[in-house]
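User: I'm writing a tutorial on reading structure tokens. Could you give me a worked example: one chain, its sequence, then its tokens, then a sentence or two explaining what the tokens reveal?
Assistant: Sure. Here is the example chain.
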Amino acid sequence: MFLSIITINRNNADGLKKTLDSVAAQTYRNFEHIIIDGASTDTSVEVIKDYLESPAGKNVSYWISEPDSGIYNAMNKGIRKATGQYVALLNSGDWYEPDTCKIISEKAEESHYDVYYGLLRYINKNGKCEMVIGQTTEMLESSMIAHPTCFVSKSFYSHYLYDEHLKYASDYDFILRIYKAGASFYFIESILTNFNTYGISSSYKAIKESIKVKRKHKLIDPIHYFIKVLCLDALMLIKFIFRV
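And here are its predicted structure tokens:
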């Protein structure tokens, strides 16, 4: 089973190194690694070049450092270059468990699902585990599955990419689109990926955009959409006024 791992990065050299080290430590080696850097001005490019010179660098099939229009534009660039049967997005700062690719390859060899995904460990800025989550597709109407753990069939990525007009919740939109299109999902009860909780996905704008995605897919009606947005805006105003 040949896998593609895509890592996107911009000005996060330390996080990038942690991500690359986790890919280098995989116990399963039949994969390609694609690195998309958004014209970083820190030492990220040097980190990539050092990685290329290491033994793990032989798995890098493509890398580039150039401006992009956002994280989903960078993801789509990597997906278009991917040749694996399954494609995963491991963003800079996040990292895999050593056996992640091995677990995925074994499951994919014994079954035929379009998306494999599992448990996600949330890590705070102090390096401590906040929680481990593992929503299944049965919860998609209320919340997103753990996207950093997903390995998606390239056949679906050949027909569906991330909506670059969305800046924060395009992954949720993507999963909902392929779910509606009939994609089959297999949940793995193992921790596959570690995720930094202080990233973009937990921001106010990300939460608000996820509500808009729910409305787009008719998961909430117009009245509840208005109430949710109003409550979110009110909460943020209170936090701003009282600095809480």
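What the tokens reveal: The two ends are 49 Å apart (CA to CA). The CA atoms of residues 94 and 195 lie 5 Å apart.
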